[in-house]
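User: Hello! I'm new to structural biology and keep hearing that structure can be predicted from sequence alone. Could you demonstrate with Microcin ABC transporter permease? Please show me the input and the output so I can see what each looks like.

Assistant: Of course. The first part below is the input, the amino acid sequence of Microcin ABC transporter permease. The second part is the output, the predicted structure written as tokens.
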Amino acid sequence: MKQYIFKRLLLIIPTLLGIMTLNFFIIQAAPGGPVEQMIARLEGVGGQGEVQPTSVYKNQGLDEEMIAKINALYGFDKPLLERYILMLKNYLCFEFGSSFYKNTAVIDLLLEKLPVSISLGLWSTLLIYLISIPLGIQKALKEGSTFDSITSTLIIIGNAIPTFLFALILIIFFAGGTYFNLFPLRGIIGDDFANLSLFGKIKDYFWHITLPVISLSIGGFATLTLLSKNSFLEEIHKQYVQLAFAKGLNESQVLYRHIFRNAMLIIIASIPSALLGILLSGSLLIEIIFSLDGLGLLGYESIITRDYPVIFGSLYLFTLFGLIVGLISDLLYTFIDPRINFQRV
């Protein structure tokens, strides 16, 4: 196992290098970089995403000395290869620089936005698993029944509804849109949060996070529920289950002592990757709709404004985190089922 972990950790290095290299040169080649955007702001030309190449501004008679200073300000006075090597050296030491537009260190920005995204990802994943696994077990035990058919129809409909559309429906019905005003429309905490008691802070936090978490969770039930059902169905028809019944064990003992552990292997081991997926990719529209200032919104804004330090810093940390989570998922397999051995991998 130690050898396998060491090999996986070594593979992180070339994977990170390849991803960062590919994205560096793709983004550098994209038009409308930070230099062009700054010149456009100074000249009052166009809007976000409508900037022109630097050569156009030179042709319009702009001061080349000013353009050179702007290039130096953003580090674009250095050759492309030199910028690339400098980026790699800095990232080895986790030095991501400062945002071009927020005048804040990238690492501080990420730490500031992280709690919002963690809240959405953690509670959404927990809600999905708490509902989907028991539901999948019951569907397996009652396969072909009316309950099985109705629940399958409901989760498929829920999976077909886009996350942002479901969020808007919740706002209309429960956040003062048209019918009820039961939940706040924006933010993750109230304005008077600091003045509340401990119980009041907990209540205020969950009051604000309820609708965003439900919105994020609606599309995750179908896959996990059907996966749980199929895993249990596969185990139920195996010979060891019939042998357990023959020994005199009741249904509850067979279900939770024998079937549950084997059926839950693939489901429990997928928790880290499921959390990572919701955390990094599933919350952008929800953060925008509910005005939640998290990593999704930060990443979107940095791409629009070509804020390269934020783009590459986020990409580097997310990629590293994703690779480590993948390793943790593999290790969970061996923890749940000791029969799995990675020594031969």
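User: So the tokens describe the shape?

Assistant: Right, they're a compact way of writing down the 3D structure. Reading them back into a model, for example: Confidence is low (pLDDT under 50) at residues 46-61.
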